[in-house]
Amino acid sequence: MKALRTILTHGVAMLVGIALGIYLLPLLTETPAPSSATMALVQAEAQYVAQFERERTDSDLLHWGEGQLLLGEGSIGFRGELAPGPDYRLYLSPRFVETEHEFLALQGEMVAIGSISSFDGFALPVPNGVEVGSYQAAIVWCESFQQFITSGVIRPRQSD
């Protein structure tokens, strides 16, 4: 009986440790948010914006994002917050999606912009040949767990 209790308690402790590791590792490996100067350059070039919101259909307590995405032909920047997680990527999509099912069905038509390793803002270069204005939505997706994080409709930017 004592051996069974030891196995159970150690097994539970191990599972808790693994869960904490999965949650904390992205926080420990997070890169700093882009500088104010970098974001000013992204903002100056931005021709489009998208608003990420927590209230997307497949967003939840652990998978969410909120803030403004600034999109230009050379760079994309985000001001806001994302729930911490591993292996996030930014995609541009020909149609708006807000569920994992919709994302997976349309993924072949999307373009991956880059990896996200900061949860309080990021800046990414736009790959050569990608015309930002030809897409209708931006999506943050977790590759490791195939989880939808957030999305926003891409709209022309209004003058500040």
Quick structural summary:
It comes from Ferrimonas lipolytica. The N and C termini lie far apart (70 Å).
Provide mean pLDDT, rounded.
Answer: 90
Helical proportion? 25-40%
Q: What is the number of independent domains?
A: 2
**What is the N-to-C succession of helices and strands?**
HHEEEEHEEEE
Strand content: 25-35%
Flag low-confidence runs.
none
Distance between the termini: 70 Å
Structural class, please? Answer: alpha+beta
Reported for the largest beta sheet, the result is: 8 strands, antiparallel
The count of β-strands is 8
Side by side, the strands of the main sheet go 5-4-7-8-1-2-3-6
Query: What is the count of DSSP helices, taking H or I runs of 4+ residues?
Result: 3
Pfam families: DM13
InterPro entries: DM13_domain
Protein name: DM13 domain-containing protein
Domain DM13: 50-155
